[in-house]
Amino acid sequence: MVRANKYRITGMELIETIDNWEHLIRFKVNLIGCGGTALTLLKIKESTKDIDMIVPVQKEYERLMAFLRSIGYQEKGNGLAHPDDPNFLYQFWTGNRVFTTELLDSPLEPDRNIPIKNWRHIYLGALNLQDLIITKMFRGTQVDLDDCVAAFAASNMDPEALLERYAETAKYDLNPEKMIENFIRFAEALVERSMVNQSFLEKAASYK
User: Do 96 and 56 form a contact (C-beta atoms < 8 A)?
Assistant: First the structure.
């Protein structure tokens, strides 16, 4: 496949890649896009550099890794890349884990993912925006912050419910105070853009 941008992949191009997998695969697998991949699939971002996905079921994860290696994907950094498309790194997590974050619920639970496409063998969803913001702000880079503001702006989520779920998830992190500090940065960015009021920021700060 010839990419419009050899260093970034669009949602349509990613779906075309998975469509190619579907023609070869012989088992069921659930894929949940996360990070920038989810935002790209949901058309909140135009494209993404790396492809990040959760495979919630361990057995499906193991079979998928064997399948991808059988069709030419090779180890690269923390993921897999194909010699025909070497600029794109595919990273996979299993269970409820995304990056360094353990989600409270499986991404396969009702409302925890947004359906994108369902093939005969492969189901593709995007992590719901509430959990997506949580996983990105747990990393807390400037890019993550910008993505989270965009995700919040594109949704109609309840900020109070987001804060409560974030704080609950933070309890299980090795450094919960740092995670809350990251959320306060996010809340400050929302206040600056008049997406929430000052009292929301004060409530976020009270979790420190």
Answer: yes
Q: Which tokens go with 8?
A: 């970034």
117 Cβ contact list (under 8 Å, min separation 6):
15, 18, 123, 124
* Nearest-angstrom CA–CA distance, 57 and 59: 6
Q: Taking the model in full, what pTM does it have?
A: 0.94
Residue 22 exposure: Cα atoms within 13 Å on the Cβ side: 16
**Which tokens sit at 182?**
């990251």
What gap in Å lies between CA 208 and CA 206, rounded to an integer? 5
Tell how strand 51-55 and strand 97-98 pair up: unpaired
- Reference 42, options 135, 148, 154, 133; nearest CA is 154
Tens digit of pLDDT for each residue in 119-142? 999 999 999 999 999 999 999 999
Question: What three-state secondary structure class fits 103?
Answer: coil
Torsion of Cα atoms, 105 then 108 then 111 then 114, to 10°: 130
